[in-house]
Amino acid sequence: MLLEIRDIQVHYNGVAxxxxxxxxxxxxxxxxxxxxxxxxxxTTLRAVSGxxxxxxxxxxxxxxxIDTLPPDKVVARGIAQxxxxxxxxxxxxxxxxxxxxxxxxxxxxAVERDxxxxxxxxxxxxxxxxxxxxxxxxGEQQMVAIGxxxxxxxxxxxxxxxxxGLAPVVILEIARIIKEIVANGVPVVxxxxxxxxxxxxxxxAYVLETGTVSLHGASRxxxxxxxxxxxxxxx
Amino acid sequence: MTEIILQTTxxxxxxxxxxxxxxxxxxxxxxxxxxxxxxxxxLYMAGAYTVVALYSHLNFPFLIAVAAGLAFxxxxxxxxxYSLFRPLRxxxxxxxxxxxxxxxxxxxxxxxxxxxxxxxxxxxxxxxxELLGAVLTYQxxxxxxxxxxxxxxxxxxxxxxxxxxxxxxxxxxxxxxxxQGISLNQITRIxxxxxxxxxxVAGALTAPLVSPTPYMxxxxxxxxxxxxxxxxxxxxxxxxxxxxxxxxxxxxxTTFYDGVVADIVGLVLMLLVLVIKPTGLFGARERx
Lengths: 235, 288
What we know:
heterodimer, A: alpha/beta, Rossmann fold, 10 helices, 40% helix, globular, B: mainly alpha, ABC transporter involved in vitamin B12 uptake, BtuC, two-stranded antiparallel ribbon, 11 helices
């Protein structure tokens, strides 16, 4: 396993947000975490990235324990995150936003190549490369956020609600991009409220309910699960 | 009449220069750390007393004393960051209260070391420029030149260097910056050094002109708060523009009416901005 989350707990002001959550992510493919608002999906990703401290349990990445590392050190190990709400830098240009993703990289020539690669993949960002990021549409901002994370040349990509607030046609485009990323050899952890989309993309899925994993299994199986159908797929 | 107007303009430019240095430092610290540094006026005072100690008492050359003031107060900033703001990173109100404690410590240290009375400093640089009947002393000219130089340098640093860039990213969204691999500890340490040292150098350069006291930080911090509110909290260019605006209004009102009226006008200016554009002249975005 590339990433192993073992029995972690997270407390916010004494209240448990995660109760003994364990999740495993293999070296390829997409693992999704679905669940309702407040189930602890984002908290899980925040814990992996070192933004939120865990109160017990362990997180291992590629054979090393990472749960005590600060966020910048987690990025240095190869884990990039596209946070909930995109969190692009509003007063930096599109190009500057993308370049911050490569902050820790020292291979300048390869960074330029990767930036060109991002612009090939997202032609709309190329047109807007000198624009302030805050002037972009929601879908374009999501592309900046994903492009920024890819500029880190990650070994694992965490995506938190990439479909949030986007029009259906834009969501399809984001889905295509996620497939492309995985096809290029970068495994993805996808957190989504849009369970239909997530189960359609992922190989394996975890269902989080009030801070615990209530179900997990192959996406195809969960898609047919009666509880998942009723609670998350609206059928 | 033109003579008085020209003279008042020169006075305003001088006031704008050192107030910009102080306000920009305060804004930088707030922008990167989200903490209101109440001790900022005392950092200015510490810069002035570095000059009292090294130049007046120990007879070092003035410019050496100024450089020492810059470095010493910058290090005080790093000390504050490490001992107060870092442990309280998730608690901006706690940071503010801790900075008030630090302010009292600095004040007390100055009283113990130098007494409560005004320190008089013999003018290090003699001579003046005369311009159509108006006078600008070299001492004041030095303050203006240093402010322009330092603020231009800071601007280039923030725009052109990787660290500067990371600092802007932190000021816009700290967590998102951390997710790009930017070390918050490193960036806040640098921001604190720069912010504090700007206040320190302002105090050091103006020390011979103001007669330092341990309590000189009070009036400065109030003015600095007005300036950063008018400019838009967290906005560096806004702080410079607001400092110039405030200095001109304040200096002209002081010259043609009196100082108390000028203070009132300054506060009214702030109130007007708060009523008409609460985010300040330049502030637009909401902080996350």
